[in-house]
Amino acid sequence: MDLYQELILDHYKNPVGHGLREPFEGESHQVNPTCGDEVTLRVHVSGEGEDAVVEDVSYDSMGCSISVASASILAEEVTGGSVAHARETYEAMRRMLTSKGQDPGDEDEIGDGVALAGVAKYPARVKCALLSWAAFTDALYQAQGAKQ
């Protein structure tokens, strides 16, 4: 088994951030109707604007190893960083996953997210990998709206 498969399985078996927690300012529930994957994700942010800090990302997910691993990777990569960093990380993940295998990803930008680079070659699985990220961007939007 290669390193990337091991990373995905590790995040699936030992997910970072799993379990819904309080406090939170934004929550989003997303479903992938193609395969039935589901995620409810909460985000807790302190401060305002792009310099605000993503204090916590918590989630409850039901789905395939790619979906759960992606949520775990998201929580690991953005928790403790700025909102600007979280948005950059999301864009780098989205770019890699929608590249049809042309963008291998940059470990400096997305950390363990590079393990999901192979998913880009399977369009049906891209939605699995992006599900938690869609929930995160929605919850982050809500959280920032709550601060205004």
Automatic annotation (TrEMBL):
<protein>
    <submittedName>
        <fullName>SUF system NifU family Fe-S cluster assembly protein</fullName>
    </submittedName>
</protein>
<dbReference type="GO" id="GO:0051536">
    <property type="term" value="F:iron-sulfur cluster binding"/>
</dbReference>
<dbReference type="InterPro" id="IPR002871">
    <property type="entry name" value="NIF_FeS_clus_asmbl_NifU_N"/>
</dbReference>
<feature type="domain" description="NIF system FeS cluster assembly NifU N-terminal">
    <location>
        <begin position="4"/>
        <end position="128"/>
    </location>
</feature>
<dbReference type="GO" id="GO:0005506">
    <property type="term" value="F:iron ion binding"/>
</dbReference>
<dbReference type="GO" id="GO:0016226">
    <property type="term" value="P:iron-sulfur cluster assembly"/>
</dbReference>
<dbReference type="Pfam" id="PF01592">
    <property type="entry name" value="NifU_N"/>
</dbReference>
